[in-house]
Write a structure and sequence with these properties.
76% of the residues lie in helices and 0% in strands. Helix 5 runs parallel beside helix 22, helix 9 runs antiparallel to helix 12 and helix 17 crosses helix 18. The radius of gyration is 24 Å and the shape is globular. It is an all-alpha fold. It has 23 helices and no strands.
Length: 533
């Protein structure tokens, strides 16, 4: 019988101990665990209600608008479609403050629309701060993500069903109602749940665009209680309240979301259009154009605004270079730790699956993704409370930020590598032992060659997430240690928009360049080796 490697178990236990110790520190500062304190305070009741309210509206807008966008993209092929879909995929891991700056440059008080209104002799009365800006930012980040997920569901419709609809002479509405909508409906609970969780735990967006006490979420209230008021009791109770709500939401999503049924027949990359006409083309073009207008202008504005008169002045500021170096160091260390940790967990879990112990494998991977239920700010708060009586917390800020960012990226690493690692093991589990390949030799000669592409993708995603994260550094950052997102937030807060534009451009350039460079470097040698063979 194959011996199951235990390295993943030990790594998962360390992760669990890391989270439990943070939660334990929170418990020590909230010994009564009286949740009624939340409801007895009008401000905390308002914060809780607003968290649900803005997440509900954001989900309704993002997913509701994503349905016709995904439907239009499934029916049309045009130049730039693949580039648009890649752009849609990048918004999920795009540094939040980069997107926020792009939105401010267009919809802000001194943005492009305000200047356009002023040119026509009227005043631009829209305020991006408060609920309006939060909803706009959440639609910018989540509409492309939801559209891609729903498009994947539509792509599972068998080619034979498209042909049958054409033979039966179905109209567009009939085909959508009877064939395409059932596919989308199966995916909707999963999409809505994920978008709701992302909006509910949104931190940087609300922090940058929130309109003061009237537009504050639970996670931002935790940050304010710890960072500014130093009210540890309130911070601990709010953090535990956040964990409880996130746990209930995660279990509800898991129960409501159902996998899409496996289709019988060929999956075709393009739906067969029935009775195509000018009205149908105009309808699809309008929704695709709407999606382009939502996503592309803020990113173009970041690029255009970043090249301004303050460009070279910012490059001479030492704080800029210190923040840049800190961001790169944190991203490199956190992404490497996250990738190694994820591979270790999956190395053990796939061995359990091959030994027909799927239940244990699921629980092991669940420990690795526990951060989905425990937001990074909660972990940071717990560590702050745990270490403040032992040592100077801010002297350990660099290591803590790295560990928190690695833990936050770990679920994405596990979800990216789980299936490729399992399929590779199933394919070579008999060949490798017969050739005497074990341990590092097997990984170097077989695993690394087969998994180079998904590993590059996982490393790039974790790098971009760590590069743009604000939650951990917002709590532990100081004048001596700050990253580019924190530096950008400070510039936005002091209305230094030209300097903020340069920093946003730098952050966007670094994120895109690193994503492309990591994938190209790690996959190039694999392609060359295949060509040699």
């Amino acid at each position: 019988m194959r011996k199951t490697p235990t390295i993943g178990l030990w790594v998962a236990l360390v992760i669990a101990a890391f989270v439990v110790s943070s939660v334990g520190a929170l418990l020590s500062y909230a010994p009564s665990l009286d949740i009624s304190l939340i409801w007895s305070d009008p401000y905390y009741r308002h914060v809780t209600r607003f968290s649900f309210y803005q997440a509900f509206l954001s989900t309704l807008l993002s997913v509701g608008l994503a349905i016709p966008v995904a439907h239009a993209l499934s029916r049309r092929r045009f130049k730039g479609r693949s580039l648009l879909l890649k752009l849609f995929a990048s918004t999920l891991v795009l540094p939040v403050l980069v997107g926020v700056f792009g939105l401010l440059a267009i919809y802000g008080r001194s943005g492009l629309l305000a200047e356009l209104w002023q040119w026509f002799g009227s005043e631009f009365e829209y305020s991006i701060y408060g609920l309006n800006g939060i909803l706009l930012a959440h639609v910018f980040f989540n509409l492309p993500y939801a559209s891609r997920l729903l498009l994947q569901a539509l792509d599972t419709v068998p080619y034979e069903q498209h042909k049958l609809c054409a033979h039966l002479g179905m109209g567009h509405w009939s085909k959508f109602r009877l064939v395409e909508w059932p596919r989308m409906k199966q995916q909707l609970p999963h999409v809505c749940g994920l978008v709701f969780m992302l909006c509910f735990t949104s931190f940087a967006t609300v922090m940058a665009l929130g309109g003061g006490p009237r537009a504050t979420t639970i996670e931002l209230a935790i940050y304010q209680a710890i960072k500014f008021d130093f009210d540890l009791q309130a911070g601990a109770i709010l953090a535990l309240w956040q964990m409880l709500l996130c746990g209930v939401l995660a279990l509800s999503i898991q129960r409501l979301a159902k996998p899409i049924a496996v289709s019988q027949g060929r999956i075709h990359s393009q739906a067969i259009l029935i009775k195509d006409n000018l009205k149908a083309r105009a309808w699809d073009a309008a929704w695709i154009g709407f999606a382009v207008l939502v996503v592309v202008p803020p990113l173009l504005t970041v690029i255009i605004s970043g090249i301004n008169s303050s460009f070279f002045d910012v490059l001479t500021i030492s704080a800029y270079w210190q923040a840049l170096m800190s961001s790169v160091q944190v991203a490199v260390c956190a992404s490497v730790i996250s990738l190694c940790t994820g591979v270790a967990v999956l190395w053990t879990s796939r061995s359990l699956r091959l030994s027909y112990r799927a239940f244990l494998a699921d629980k092991l991977e669940l420990l690795g993704t526990i951060i989905l239920v425990t937001p990074g700010l909660v972990i940071s708060t717990g560590l702050f409370l745990l270490l403040r009586n032992i040592t100077d917390v801010f002297s350990l800020a660099f290591g803590i930020v790295i560990l928190v960012n690695a833990l936050m990226a770990l679920p994405y690493v596990i979800k990216t590598l789980a299936q490729p690692m399992l399929h590779t093991a199933q394919q070579y589990q008999l060949l490798c032992p017969s050739l005497g390949m074990t341990g590092f030799n097997r990984f170097r000669l077989v695993e690394w060659r087969a998994l180079r592409q998904p590993m590059a993708n996982a490393l790039a995603i974790s790098f971009m997430m760590s590069m743009g994260d604000l939650s951990a550094i917002a709590l532990f950052g100081s004048q001596d240690f700050q990253t580019l997102p924190l530096y950008l937030f400070q510039l936005l807060g002091s209305y230094q928009m030209e300097s903020a534009a340069v920093v946003s451009l730098t952050l966007l350039f670094l994120s895109v360049l690193s994503f492309a460079l990591i994938e190209k470097v790690l996959t190039r040698r694999a392609k060359n080796s295949i060509q040699v063979k």
